[in-house]
Automatic annotation (TrEMBL):
GO biological process, one term: DNA-templated transcription
Domain of life according to the entry: Eukaryota
InterPro entries: prtT (IPR051089), XnlR_reg_dom (IPR007219), Zn2-C6_fun-type_DNA-bd_sf (IPR036864), Zn2Cys6_DnaBD (IPR001138)
Primary location: nucleus
Single GO term (MF): zinc ion binding
SUPFAM superfamilies: Zn2/Cys6 DNA-binding domain
Start and end residues of each stretch annotated as Disordered: 96-146
Descriptive protein name: Zn(2)-C6 fungal-type domain-containing protein
Iron-sulfur keyword on record: no
PROSITE patterns in UniProt: ZN2_CY6_FUNGAL_1, ZN2_CY6_FUNGAL_2
Keywords, alphabetical: DNA-binding, Metal-binding, Nucleus, Transcription, Transcription regulation
CDD domains, per database record: fungal_TF_MHR (cd12148), GAL4 (cd00067)
Length: 664
């Protein structure tokens, strides 16, 4: 039987069957019926119903599709069917080849069968990629084929882990004799060997030291390709996000990285390099960071990296690398859990409690000291989260003041110890010492903002002891901005720092604006210098963001801060600020047909809801569309972000891309 070869793209398929060319869509319907009827802006997350207005009001949210949109979906469907038929043809050809091999009593071609049929073709002529295009590889055999066996380790005593006596034999593993799983980005034609080499060098020289040299000596492209296609995809994606020359490769690398993560999700036999690839993506790719962190924690636990500390302390080199990687997973997890109001997935265990002893091993290096310093400060911040929770409506009892003071002392001790221990770094200069101060103030404002819990804009003065803590939060927030404004070395690293830094910069700005406006009567703090400080910070962000990729999170933060400042400026009245005769701000511009003052009438802040900075595709055409709630929930401002993470509209929507599009 002769198999007809069908064209790959939808255009060729239509030409083969005599269909006419699909007319170009001149205008897409993106607003729901309810919003179009009211002639107001319709804000949909990822372009999917319900929109924010209908969801809030409990309305039915539907979008009428035009004939042209239906035709486009038809063309996409044909393209998808074409690819499935091609994969079916390939699988049939492999089956025929295996039958011939069996007849000649030769073993089947394991190399060919190890590549999943669900892999995407090397080229994708469509402008956009839908989330459904991320495919999963089929298992080698059915789940019912897995088996279990009761085993007894004669060398161990009765005191062992209960599940150690039941061993699982499953087929969800790498094929024997293979290191990596599936083709890498170079094999798929996403980028060339030379481009991958350039991106690897960029990552190694500019970014890897922010992850405490996670690659170590593993910086050869051929070695990375041999060991882990997932690690290579993560490096190339993050490198393209920070590259001026190869930034156009970002969207394609991003999609390839997503496909690689999905393909390895259910493998039981993953490697350390796969975890490294997940961590690299999590630290810089905002839309999928939380999902990548979850996978990294799961794999690290599955490989029992948390138990390697026992032999690492005996100077075993392999255990040293395993423990080091577990520490990085711990830090990454806490970057995206505690600060966002989510319980962390990696808990405090012997490995974490022994972090200081880890530095005494013979393999420990300077970067390990920086990594352990992060372990120690996140242990303190985790205590804040676990002790006080996330109920921001409940005021902190005065009985809890001793606990807060002890935590503040712990932070002060941490800063004193590590400011003295960390020296000038060969690659990042004095950033090690400056970074200690930044992390200290990040944790301090997170802790001391507890004083504002349950406080409203019309509340009376705080208790003197609680006001002292509130003032400490304000001082730390100001220090964050001043450190960035006055240190050129920090500014030079803004285009490279992980997402957590961008998040805390945005939080410090919004925190100060709230305190200086809605809560100026509750806290007697120096508010006069806040607006000039925020304006200087906005200028620094604007200058740094101008050189960044259009999908970099800091670009959206810079635009948002500018729009906040635009609302703070204009014709003025002189508000009273905490009893001071000085005024910080003038009366804001007329908004929605009425005038509002910055103090008691700064009501536009109340209308800013769902501020989710990790959704970098949000519409920033107006400050009110920021999805960040400016209602003062001190911890939950960074703790109520939407944890639903999907491929962003900027990746999947053709009108928002140069080629296919992508990121964070």
């Amino acid at each position: 039987m002769e198999i007809i070869s069908l064209p790959v793209d939808g255009g060729g398929l239509r030409e083969l069957f005599g269909d006419r060319k699909v007319p170009d869509i001149s205008r897409k319907i993106t607003a729901c019926v309810a919003c179009r009827k009211q002639k107001i802006k319709c804000n949909m997350r990822d372009g999917r119903a319900p929109c924010l207005r209908c969801k809030k009001r409990g309305l039915s949210c539907t979008v009428n599709r035009s004939l042209q949109m239906l035709l486009e979906e038809d063309a996409d469907w044909k393209t998808s069917i074409t690819r499935k038929i091609q994969r079916l043809e390939g699988s049939l050809a492999e089956l025929r080849g295996e039958r011939r091999l069996h007849k000649s009593h030769t073993p089947p071609n394991t190399e060919a069968s190890s590549i999943p049929l669900s892999q995407e073709p090397r080229t994708d002529k469509r402008r956009g990629v839908r989330p459904s295009s991320v495919t999963m590889p089929p298992p080698v055999r059915a789940p019912s084929d897995q088996s279990w066996e009761v085993v007894m380790d004669e060398e161990s005593g009765p005191a062992t882990i209960p599940a150690a006596c039941v061993e699982e034999h499953t087929s969800y593993a790498r094929p024997p004799g293979r290191t990596r799983v599936g083709p890498d980005l170079i094999d798929q034609g996403v980028l060339t060997y030379d481009q991958a080499q350039t991106l690897l060098e960029l990552y190694s020289n500019r970014l890897d030291h922010f992850l405490y040299q996670i690659l170590g000596e593993h910086k050869d492209l051929d070695a990375i390709r041999f060991d882990s296609s997932l690690l290579l995809a993560g490096i190339c994606t993050v490198g393209a996000l920070h590259s001026a020359e190869l930034g156009h490769l970002y969207e394609r690398c991003y999609k390839g990285f997503m496909d690689r993560c999905a393909a390895q999700m259910f493998l039981n036999e993953n490697r350390l390099d796969d975890i490294r690839g997940l961590c690299i993506g999590a630290f810089w790719l905002s839309e999928i960071s939380w999902s990548l962190v979850a996978s990294a924690v799961r794999l690290a636990t599955q490989l029992q990296l948390h138990r390697s500390i026992n032999t690492a302390l005996k100077d075993d080199l392999r255990s040293y690398y395993e423990t080091r990687l577990y520490y990085l997973v711990y830090v990454c997890d806490h970057h995206f859990s505690v600060a966002y109001g989510r319980p962390s997935m990696s808990r405090e265990c012997d490995s974490i409690r022994s972090a200081s002893r880890f530095l005494a091993t013979k393999h420990a290096c300077e970067d390990d000291a920086r990594l352990v310093s992060q372990i120690n400060i996140w242990r303190i911040s985790s205590s804040v989260f676990e002790t006080f929770g996330v109920d921001v409506e409940k005021p902190i009892s005065l009985d809890h003041l001793p606990k807060i003071h002890r935590l503040m002392i712990s932070l002060d001790t941490w800063r004193a110890d590590w400011s003295e221990s960390l020296k000038t770094h060969a690659l990042i200069g004095d950033y090690s010492q400056i970074g200690v101060g930044l992390h200290f103030h990040f944790a301090k404002v997170f802790l001391c903002s507890l004083a504002f819990r349950g406080v409203t804009s019309d509340s009376h003065d705080l208790h003197p002891d609680m006001e002292e803590i509130a003032n400490a939060a304000v001082v730390s927030a100001k220090s964050i901005l001043r450190t960035i404004i006055h240190h050129k070395s920090v500014q030079s690293h803004l285009h490279g720092l992980p997402l957590y830094f961008d998040t805390m910069i945005a939080f410090a700005v919004v925190f100060l604006l709230k305190v200086a406006t809605k809560f100026s009567r509750s806290v007697r703090t120096g508010s006069v210098d806040i607006l000039p400080l925020v304006k200087d910070m906005a200028s620094v962000l604007r200058k740094a963001a101008a050189k960044m990729h259009r999908q970099h999170l800091l670009r959206f933060i810079a635009e948002g801060v500018d729009k906040l400042l635009q609302r703070c400026e204009g014709p003025s009245t002189v508000p009273q600020i905490a009893g001071s005769h000085a005024s910080m701000l003038q009366e804001s511009q007329a908004y929605h047909g009425h005038t509002e003052t910055l103090d008691g009438g700064f009501n536009w802040i109340d209308n800013m809801q769902n501020f989710d900075l990790l959704s970098s595709h949000n519409d920033f055409s107006s400050t009110a569309s920021w999805p960040y709630t400016m209602d003062f929930d001190p911890v939950m401002d960074i703790g109520t972000w939407d944890t639903t993470e999907q491929i962003p509209t900027s990746i999947t929507s053709p009108q928002n891309s140069n080629e296919t599009s992508g990121l964070r």
